[in-house]
TrEMBL record:
<comment type="similarity">
    <text>Belongs to the peptidase C48 family.</text>
</comment>
<protein>
    <recommendedName>
        <fullName>Ubiquitin-like protease family profile domain-containing protein</fullName>
    </recommendedName>
</protein>
<keyword id="KW-0645">Protease</keyword>
<dbReference type="InterPro" id="IPR038765">
    <property type="entry name" value="Papain-like_cys_pep_sf"/>
</dbReference>
<keyword id="KW-0378">Hydrolase</keyword>
<feature type="domain" description="Ubiquitin-like protease family profile">
    <location>
        <begin position="78"/>
        <end position="243"/>
    </location>
</feature>
<dbReference type="Pfam" id="PF02902">
    <property type="entry name" value="Peptidase_C48"/>
</dbReference>
<dbReference type="InterPro" id="IPR003653">
    <property type="entry name" value="Peptidase_C48_C"/>
</dbReference>
Length: 319
């Protein structure tokens, strides 16, 4: 289960600082106008991924459409979503409507451009898409992304082991008393969520003879450190996709390679089309049509030649 938890208050107030949005959505049928089978799958060249293959294969909403995506369609979809036309910046391009109604406009997707902080609406959309995936760990464990004072981090609850962890791309422990209080507050909210969903509470006061079943003061997992000031949201989204709670250990670093700036931007682009081309998106037909009409500008064969060098000084002399 992916819980969306957002805290944006400058001063800590549990009653005002957090919004917990959790729900399931009914998958809508894809309209008949376009079928992704119409786009033949291109053979993809192997890419060295920073994510271990065994982990990467476990998750990712690419199966949510039920169809393999053509690479060209993915690329056009990303360009269409990030279009900088002013007249369409408030155009809704992702919407679900079931037990809850939620939508994201193009202006919010533009936060996925390089060097920008990811908008909370995009992270919520990705959480909802993942939440409806047939992935076992999302049925047995809880992933809760949180934003507070402009920084994203994530809580992970392993219900089987009764362990509670924090993944933070900037910090390895609670940096302030406010953060410690937030940790405890979110733990109690997650426990209430479990009870609401029909599970037994994991929170017990404990006695001298019986210790508490679970500590709501989570342990910080050693994991990636972000290389900049704006990719914390990207880390949280990718962690939701690839982290395996059974491998979390506060005493050792999570077994995953570091991600470069190029990896992080590739993740952003992948997440855009995974959200928009999900069959949960009621605007998927508009997305496919927009992608088809999007022109990808590529350099000519001459400019791609390793024997051609472009001298900007010479270009300035042209009439």
């Amino acid at each position: 289960m992916v819980a969306s938890v957002a805290a944006q208050a400058k001063e800590y107030d549990p009653s005002e600082a957090f919004d917990l949005g959790v729900g399931t959505t009914r998958q809508s049928k894809m309209p008949e106008m376009y079928d992704l089978d119409d786009f033949p799958e291109e053979p993809e060249t192997p890419v060295t991924s920073a994510v271990p293959a065994t982990t990467a294969m476990q998750a990712g909403p690419s199966s949510s459409t039920g169809h393999p995506h053509n690479r060209d369609l993915k690329e056009r979809c990303v360009m269409w979503a990030l279009s900088d036309r002013r007249d369409i910046k408030y155009d809704s391009i992702f919407m679900i409507h079931g037990d809850i109604h939620f939508e994201v406009v193009r202006k919010q997707f533009r936060s996925m451009r390089p060097g920008k902080e990811v908008d909370a609406a995009v992270i919520t959309a990705y959480s909802l898409v993942l939440n409806n995936e047939p992935i076992p760990r999302f049925q047995s464990d809880i992933f809760a992304p949180v934003i507070y004072s402009g920084h994203w981090w994530m809580y992970v609850l392993d219900k089987e082991k009764k362990t509670f962890f924090v993944g933070d791309s900037k910090r390895k422990d609670a940096p302030s008393s406010d953060r410690t209080r937030i940790n405890k507050f979110v733990g109690n909210m997650i426990d209430q969520l479990l009870v609401y969903a029909g599970h037994h509470s994991l929170l017990t006061k404990g006695t001298r003879s019986k210790p508490p079943q679970i500590s709501w003061f989570p342990r910080y997992q050693q994991i990636h450190e972000q290389p900049n000031a704006y990719d914390c949201g990207t880390f949280v989204m990718k962690w939701m996709e690839v982290l395996d709670p059974t491998k979390l250990d506060a005493h050792s670093k999570y077994p995953i390679e570091d991600w470069s700036a190029e990896d992080l931007q590739r993740f952003r682009n992948d997440i855009i089309w995974q959200i928009i081309l999900s069959t949960q998106n009621l605007h998927i037909q508009k997305a496919i049509q927009g992608a088809i009409e999007t022109t990808i500008h590529k350099p000519s064969a001459a400019l791609r030649s390793p024997y051609v060098q472009v001298n900007t000084d010479e270009l300035k002399k042209l009439p």
